[in-house]
Amino acid sequence: MRIGWYINRLRSMGPAEVLHRLDEQRRRIVSRRRDDGWKRYPSPPLHQVLRGLRDAVLAATPTQRQAIEAAAQNTLSGEFSALGQTWPRRDRDQLFAPELWRLDPVTGKLWPGPESHTFDIDFRHRDDRGDVKYIWEINRLQQLPPLAAHLLLAGDDQAGAAIEAAIDSWHSANPPFRGIGWASGIEVALRAISLIVTLDLVGDRLGAATRLRVGEILAASAYWLPRFPSRFSSANNHLVAELAGQYLISLALGTESAAARNALLAEVHKQILADGAGAEQTPTYAAFTAELILLCTAAARQAGKPFPAAAEARLAAFADFVAWLPRNAIGFGDDDEGRVLTLGDEPGYVRSVAAAIHGLLGMPGSMPEPDDFRSLFFGAPTAPAPAAQGLQTFVQGGLSIWRGEMNGRDVELTFDHGPLGYLSIAAHGHADALSLTMCIDGEPVLVDPGTWLYGSGGGWRDWFRSTPAHNTLNIDGKSQSIMTGAFNWSHKAVAALAQSERGRHWKLRARHDGYKSRFGVVHQRTVAQQADGILVTDQLLGGRRVAEIVFQLAAGLRASRDGATVTVLRGDEPLLAIRFPDAAVDIRAGGDAPGQGGWVSPRFGARQPAERLAWHGEVGEDGIQIHLAAIARSQR
Question: In terms of one coarse class, where is the protein primarily found (predicted)?
Answer without folding.
Answer: periplasm
